[in-house]
Amino acid sequence: MPFDVKDILRQLDAGFAHEGGAPPWWQESWEDPEGFATALSEAHAGRGVPPPKSRPGQQYDFFHDLVVRHVGLERPAFRTHARIQGWQNVGFRTLHDLAARRASEWVEQGVEPGAKVCLVYGVGQELLVSLLATLRLGGCFTLLPPLGPRAMATRLEALTPDFIAAEPHQLPILRGHEKLLLKSRGGGAPGFTSHTYKPGDVVGLLFSPLVEPPHTPVPLTAEDAWKGALGDGMLTFGLAPGDVLAAPDFPVLQHLPALLFATLLRGATYLHLDMADLEHNPAPLLEAPLRALGVTPRLRDLLVKHRVGAMRNVLHWFRNPEEPYDAQAWRTWVKQCGLQAVPSSNILIDAAAGGAVLVSSRGVNDPHADVHTDVFPVPGRAWTLKDPNQSGQGAPTDVGVFTLLPDKGRPAGHVLLARIRSRYHYGGTQGFRHDGRTYPAKEVTAALEGLPFLMGTSVVPVSTGGLASQSRFILLAFTGHEPAPPEGEQEIKRRIEMLLGGDFLPDRIEFFPLFPHRKKGAVDDAWCASQFFTGALHRKSTDPMFQALTALRGRLLESAGNPGEDDPSSTG
After folding, report:
1. Are the C-beta atoms of residues 2 and 352 closer than 8 Å to each other?
2. In a domain, 71, yes or no
3. CA nearest to 279, candidates 295, 298, 296
4. pLDDT tens-digit readout, 243-294
5. How many whole angstroms separate alpha carbon 539 and alpha carbon 546?
6. Other Cβ atoms within 10 Å of 288 Cβ, number
7. Strand (E) positions, 178-216?
8. β-strands 317-319, 508-512 pairing
């Protein structure tokens, strides 16, 4: 099908009313993804810069298209701001030289096409240089921001990397994998061309928080990564060379490398701002002209708290539709920051799928609809609605699980999409999730084993209900026949943060002076949930007779020296 990309870009900049559904070209792109990608690629080539080496459906040279192609622009590829150092810029030419030298060093250490390279960095220059060095060599990268040692061990065991790139001070969390660490002496000399991936080659293995369990490596193909970056750069965010994109507080494992690829592919600048610095002083967010700004509820509330006024530097802002739909809070922020006439959109990004998967129009059509539930599957991706009963059949109604096609080898979809006439609405998720992300309950309870005052733990998800509906994860902590110590909650949080990381903390901790029911030695989560929701745990923990029985049971277990196997008829 013929696609007029210039007209498409004009429509996207002007915006369109959701009532009429997706424009005809958008619907046609679902039916002809290959033709649509080819049309975008031809329009992306532009003038004044070397043409891209990648060809949709044929070959993909990420290093050339993300960096080499833009070295003559003399523009920053990456910007960051820190309280002490202030603004720091890394240009495309500098990025090219650093990545090429690092790749040269890594070749001598055995990195070759297809090698699995795990990148253990926070967001910053080192991550970007190592990511690009991996792409130059044709490696398969994995992003793994530093976590607690137990979480790191679980993920490295699942990944089985060939090499690890990390800064020296990260060695303590890499125990047992030190031999895989790549050395960087800063003396490499670039002297070879970059690698070209085939469409089906796996360019990345990502720990997506959208899959269950979240420590499962999900393959990202070269085709999905490049086409996703192209579509997001041109259409989702409308980036041009020199534009700036920022998404403070957007979870790294869900959104990178997709946001980086989309930005660099277009010769634009990725701006990284740490939330801790913004909480101290949000002024840096107002200094740079932002073509696209991602806003989370935490950033929104921070800006309201600091009474930030008109954000005249923002040309488009977007939010994740999986976050709580608190329309009043969003509109309070929009009004305070003078963004009523600024385009806004819903954008759901899954880096393991290549980038954005659900988006809405970024035009301003109705000042009272700046926060809404409308979304469309992204242009250029084939998709379907599957029956929520998980049978694999198509949805028989207008509500189903959004599923990208082909779906073979992909993680199961989790988003419920509702079709109302020509419009589509984000309708929640299959199962309980935190803003669409899974909660690693098993990792949390395993990390708490061995705490002397705990007889067992279980995680129970609860829906808050209402328009701002979200899931909360409550840790049930059983302390046996002794009450929880005063410092019990602090000790649990300290253990989780030390072994796993702050993102693993539950929303709430509930203590019960009871013994949990067990099956085959493991805490029976179904029993715990049933007892919690019916109020049985609360009643038992406050009933004098039941507490006396619990104390007796505790003494018997102590004398036996082994908690053993619970009888199915056990009640506490």
Report:
1. no
2. yes
3. 298
4. 999 999 999 999 999 999 999 999 999 999 999 999 999 999 999 899 999 9
5. 9
6. 18
7. 202-207
8. unpaired
pLDDT band for position 187 (cuts 50, 70, 90): low
Cα separation values, 474 from 151, 325, 332, 445, Å:
20, 21, 30, 12
Structure tokens at 206: 């990502």
Residue environment code for 47-68, b if the CB has 16+ CB neighbours within 10 A, otherwise e: eeeeebbbebeeebbbbbbbbb
Q: What is the pLDDT of residue 495?
A: 97
Same domain, 150 and 77: yes
In terms of C-beta density within 10 A (0-12 exposed, 13-18 middle, 19 or more buried), how is residue 565 classed? exposed
And the tokens for 276? 């801790």
CB contact at 8 A, 208 and 351: yes
- Tens digit of each residue's pLDDT (9 = 90 or more) over 214-239: 999 999 999 999 999 999 999 999 99
Report the domain count for the chain: 2
Which residue reads 């921070």 in tokens? 302
Order of strands across the sheet with 140-143?
163-166, 116-120, 140-143, 202-207, 217-221
Amino acid code (one letter) for 130: S
- Residue 533 in contact with residue 555, Cβ under 8 Å? no
CA distance 432 to 389: 15
**What 3-state DSSP class applies to 124?**
coil
Query: Among 251, 258, 245, which Cα is nearest to 204's?
Result: 258
- Rounded to whole angstroms, the Cα distance separating 38 from 29 reads 11
Cα Dmax for the chain: 83
pLDDT value at position 365?
54
Residue 267 three-state SS? coil
Minimal CA–CA distance to 261: which of 216, 222, 217? 222
Co-location of 323 and 287 in the same domain = yes
117 CB burial (10 A radius; 0-12, 13-18, 19+)? buried
Q: Cα–Cα distance between 57 and 26 in angstroms, integer?
A: 20
> Which of helix, strand or coil describes residue 30?
helix
Question: Residue 21 pLDDT > 50, yes or no?
Answer: yes
Domain CATH for 528: 3.30.300.30
Q: Are residues 358 and 453 in the same domain?
A: no
User: Nearest-CA neighbor of 260 among 164, 141, 102, 112?
Assistant: 141
- HEC string for 168-197: HHHHHHHCCCHHHECCCCCCCCCCCCCCCE
Q: Which domain holds residue 130?
A: 5-433
